[in-house]
Amino acid sequence: MTETVYVQLLDLTCGALVLAAVLVLWRRDLRAIVRLFAAQGVALAALVAVLGVHAHDAGLVALAAGAGVLRGLLLPLLLRRAMRAGGAGRETEPLVNVAASLVVAALLALLSYAVTRPVVALEPSPATHAAPVAVTVVLIGFFVLVTRRRALSQVVGFLLVDNGITALAFLTTSGVPLAVELGVSLDVLLAVLVLRVLTTRMRAAFGGTDLDDLRELRD
Amino acid sequence: MTGSSAPFVVALAAGLLGAVAGIALPRRVRPLGAGVCTAVSGAAGVVAGVAAFAGHPWSAWLPDVVPLAGTRLAVDGLGGLFIAVTGAVGVCAGVYGIAYCRPHGDHALDGRAVQAVTPLFLASMLLVPAAASVTTFLLAWELMAVASLLLVLAEHRHRTSVREAGLWYAVMTQLGMVVLLGGLVGFAAAAHGESFARLREAGRGLSPGVRAAVFLAVFVGCASKAGIVPLHVWLPRAHPEAPAHVSALMSAAMVNLGVYGIVRVGFDLLGGGPAWWWLLVLAAGAGSALYGILQAAVATDLKRLLAYSTCENMGLVLIGVGAAGLLDRAGARPLAALAMTAALLHLVNHSGFKTLLFLAAGSVVRAAGTGDLDALGGLRTRMPVTTVLFGLGALGASALPLGNGFVSEWLLLQGLVKALGSGGTAVAVTMPLAVAVVALTAGLAVATFVKAFGVGFLARARSEKAERATESPRAMLLGMSLAAACCVVLALGPVSVLPGIARAVRVVVPGPDAVTGPVTLRLHGVASTLSPLWIAVALILVLAVLRVTVMRRARRRARLWDCGMGPTSARMEYTATSFAEPLQRVFDNVLAPETDVDVTPLAESAYLVESVTYRARLGDRIEHRIYRPVIAAAAWFGRVARGLGNGSVHRYLGYGFCAFTGVLIVLAVTR
């Protein structure tokens, strides 16, 4: 593929990545949030695939396929199951309302551009120029984690953080070793499984998954 | 490593072996094994110290013992003196501990922890004066602090007050450690090297600000270990609660190492400093001496009294150290050497009598089940050996002739009095004040120890517990007798230890020996002589003559005059509180005692009294004024900080998020 196509594809996938993250902040319907998360997983896989094709690295392309299956299919499937068991399908009242969340997302994007300047300056290339996008996804994921009440949206926030970190790793390095990527993916899978069990238990105990119900558990 | 380090290696090995014995041996023989190892370790320490100041200094560099930094050891005259003193205390405490730790009534100290840590504590104390790099020094220092803390907590299951004492001690010793760490690490960073040899080279050339900061940090850190007022608060709490042989080790050996740190860093590594350093040391010493002995004079618990007496004696030692620094600065070398000799001799003497006193106090507490002087009395007939030995120690502590404290306090006074003419205004103003402080301290010490001995041991028993007391087992008496023998030697023949002290003094104040003489002490630089042996002989002769001439009159037995109140009872005796009451009245403003007198009249007439209750509480005023507000502030902060964690997961995540973005913003702005 030519350099122009490569850069445009890179920009497209990165745009999809950050757009999915921002939309997670916007939507309150849990089903839509899981769909957006799945879309982001696909975008991440596409990003890795573009990088792999450009570098003529078959291993990277295979990794992209693996990431696509895990983040685009497997994890959303698990989340959907958890949701189906749960019933209530809407995010109740987030701690920060949607409009404010979107403004914050814009500020976080600004911050990540400011902060990654030295990283970009280290080796300017189309891939490193996209690094701020990955950092933005990490920050937005963290923000979701802080402001959303439902256990499921929290899990999605955590997974957004992980997606962002993975994207950052692929963008700033010339390919992550397979062992590392496999380890991280397994970790994420395990974390989601644990969180699912926790969600089920919470529902059994409190009849809901609002995390603030856990407040009485301290001391 | 050279051959002369062999005794030191034996001492450390015996300490480690003692720790193993304390863990591995069955309960029945555990105190014996650990005690023997402690004593052997102490004896080897004495040999190592004597060898060092007899002219065989050695050094060793063990790069593999501690990762990254290695271990650097060196023993010179100064270190040797402290090693020898620590070792001697260790011998007495080890022998004493063999019997003391056996189960007796409800008190048993033969648990694994106490038995294993005691020899380790001694070994770590032997290691501190041998350390020759900052890392080694701090490691040994911390090992010593942790070991002593574990030993203070030995009886935490029996009394809740032990836990409180342990907490105070832990906080004070760790704060001291932090300050000391900051000072020494800063010193090493400024000198570009951490071995003492390197620090010695670079010490004089550093900027005055750095030197002052290092000295102040080391002084504060070491003063908290030495129990100098106002950092003394742990002493009167920890000593009454710790087992007696541990109290002896702490009060007679560990506090010395605080002085060692000040002398080593202030004189040796930094090479002396401006006059205000030494005025500060002198002032801290004077305050400590006065406040310590005042509190001791009104204390009613025997071990608490001894703990405050430790504050006093360390204060006296610091007066000598401060005077030596001041005079050295003013160029009066012989006088500086004299003051330093007096300070170190007093330190040795204090170790001698304080070991004896604490061991004897432990013997009393073990036999009578209490250390409250108001509940003791009448031990002379029941515990004759302990009584005689405690009397010897009290004589030493009260700085009267025939006691060992007299010699060193006399030397100190000589040094201070003769220093008047030399040096500038600061010396001329300070020295008379210091003389007054030493004199007042000596006077109060006599009253204190007359009270401790007279009220605690003589007359009639004031409680059933004291009536049931029996003499301690032989190993305990042996341990005390060893300490007593040291005291007698120090009192009658101080010349036997003076060469060693002179060698230690030469490390910090170069020049000829300040005090010489085979029997009579001759002071160089000032024209004075003193002969403790001749004083003793003369005193004994006078007493013998008096006895022969005056007491030869025929004796007549008669009933004791009891004011017609019927037979005298123990209720009519002086108690420790009543004995100290005049002193308490005189120093009312300083001690600020809280006393309540409630008079309940009879119902029929207001003039007839049914009962009178008297309550007195004598707290530590410095603790009340300085520490209470600090503790209250810390507690308030803790309560407020609890509000940060209200249990909400979102709030915790929010903290993380804010901190993370905050760091990123700082990065983005500053880079």
Please estimate the helix content of chain B: 55-70%
Q: What kind of assembly state do the chains in view correspond to?
A: heterodimer
Measured on Cα atoms, how large is the radius of gyration of chain B?
26 Å
Question: How many runs of DSSP E, i.e. beta strands of chain A?
Answer: 0
Uncertain residue segments of chain B: none
| Average pLDDT rating of chain A | 85
Query: Mean pLDDT of chain B, rounded to whole units?
Result: 89
* Radius of gyration of chain A from CA coordinates: 18 Å
Sheet having the most strands of chain B: 3 strands, antiparallel
DSSP helix fraction of chain A: over 70%
Distance between the termini of chain B: 52 Å
Biggest β-sheet strands, sense, barrel of chain A? none
Q: Beta-strand level of the residues of chain A, as a percent range?
A: under 5%
What series of H and E elements makes up the topology of chain A? HHHHHHHHH
Query: Total strand count of chain B, please?
Result: 7
Q: Please state the structural category of chain B.
A: mainly alpha
